[in-house]
Design goal:
The protein is mostly helical. It is built from eleven helices and no strands.
């Protein structure tokens, strides 16, 4: 997992981002976003967070193949990479990780659906942040991420992100401080 902290999300290079987020940074925020979506959808938030944490772990072996690159290369299935990654682990560990990756890849449980939405919503959030920083080439990432969302909760959160300001959270604290000083 240490590799994921250092490996960059390569799709952003296509958009012109010189120093994009790492895969680990993406997975961390996806886990938090997944927790929120799961809570809103009535799914198991802890399970969704685990699925989000592991969803790109295979990229330690195959790299982050950007969307455009997938039409030129054939990658091994994520579950096959995971099986290789955990082959030397105790069975209890490999079983938990393999089951989580298999669940995410199958997209058949409410938790897997929420985790997939979290992955896409996190990408949308990152694209909006890059756009706010002046990168004008990220609209295709925003559009494709939004179009991939399945749950009503993820779409509602995406709408809020698209209508909001990525730094608005700072204003909440400032307003509370101002309101308390007015009292």
């Amino acid at each position: 997992m240490g590799v994921l902290k250092r490996a960059r999300r390569t799709g952003w290079w296509v958009a012109g981002i010189r120093d994009p987020e790492s895969i680990g940074e993406h997975s961390f925020r996806a886990a938090i976003v997944g927790t929120v979506i799961a809570a809103m959808e009535g799914a198991d938030a802890a399970r969704v967070s685990l699925l989000c944490t592991l969803h790109d772990s295979q990229e330690t072996r195959v790299g982050d193949i950007p969307h455009i690159g997938r039409s030129y290369v054939t990658a091994v299935e994520n579950l096959d990479v995971t099986v290789d990654q955990v082959a030397a682990c105790p069975p209890a560990v490999s079983d938990v990780i393999t089951a989580a990756v298999a669940e995410y890849e199958a997209r058949a449980t409410p938790e897997a659906i929420c985790a997939r939405d979290a992955d896409k919503l996190e990408c949308l959030i990152q694209a909006v942040e890059y756009r706010t920083q002046g990168v004008v080439t990220v609209q295709p990432w925003i559009d494709s991420s939004y179009d991939a969302l399945v749950t009503d909760s993820a779409r509602a959160l995406a709408d809020a992100v698209l209508d909001g300001d990525p730094l608005a959270w700072q204003n909440v604290r400032a307003r509370r401080v101002d309101e308390s000083s007015d009292s």
